[in-house]
UniProtKB/TrEMBL annotation:
UniProt domain ABC transporter: residue ranges: 2-196
Domain of life assignment: Bacteria
InterPro entries (alphabetical): AAA+_ATPase, ABC_transporter-like_ATP-bd, ABC_Transporter_VariousFunc, P-loop_NTPase
The protein, known as: ABC transporter ATP-binding protein
SMART domains the UniProt entry points to: AAA
GO terms for MF: ATP binding; ATP hydrolysis activity
Keywords, ordered alphabetically: ATP-binding, Nucleotide-binding, Transport
Organism from which the protein derives: Periweissella fabalis
Amino acid sequence: MLKVEKITKKFKGVDVLKDVTFNLEPGQLVHIRGINGSGKSTIFKIITGLLKPATGTIMLGDNDVVGALIENPGFLEFEDVLTNLRFLADLNHNYNEAYIIELMKKFQLDPANKQPVAKYSIGMRQKLGIIQAIMENQNIILLDEPTRGLDVESINQFAALIMELKAAGKSIIVASHDDVAAITYDQQLQLVDGCLS
Ligand SMILES: Nc1ncnc2c1ncn2[C@@H]1O[C@H](COP(=O)(O)OP(=O)(O)OP(=O)(O)O)[C@@H](O)[C@H]1O
């Protein structure tokens, strides 16, 4: 369970987040909608500890593990896909190759492809970013503009994956400026002028 309470954040004197408060219950799928620059990534960076809020608190359960796709994920550009995902999962001693290969196949990525990630398209990199956010069986999943660069078929695969993860009890927040028609959310929040409601 994730509890975000009265988070505020300023950049250069400008209020980006004002008393942002919400809960994410186990198994809940939440959408945060906001235009470019509204502060969606900033909320995720604060939840994951990349940024500190000016005020407010983030509470996670003792057994919660957060997976996140935020902005453009970084990879080892000269290594192939599986090496990259193994490296990331190994950092937490949590490499499950069978699950990673299953996820890659769902997204039409070839696990045997030895091309370096530098040669991957924007959409292919985005798929890797989604995979790294869920491949360690993380129970709280934060996805920032996850469908950026994905073609229609891949967006449908993404929507099916999200509904599967929800059915498996994962708690998920998707932040985006638009809707994915095939996803039904439990809760829809809007981020406008730093306020989430
Ligand atoms: N490190 C930073 N320093 C200064 N300003 C920042 C910083 N990070 C974000 N901002 C500003 O805070 C505001 C919110 O940015 P943020 O990236 O959270 O928005 P977003 O909703 O995720 O945008 P997008 O949909 O374009 O990704 C923007 O005005 C941005 O310029």
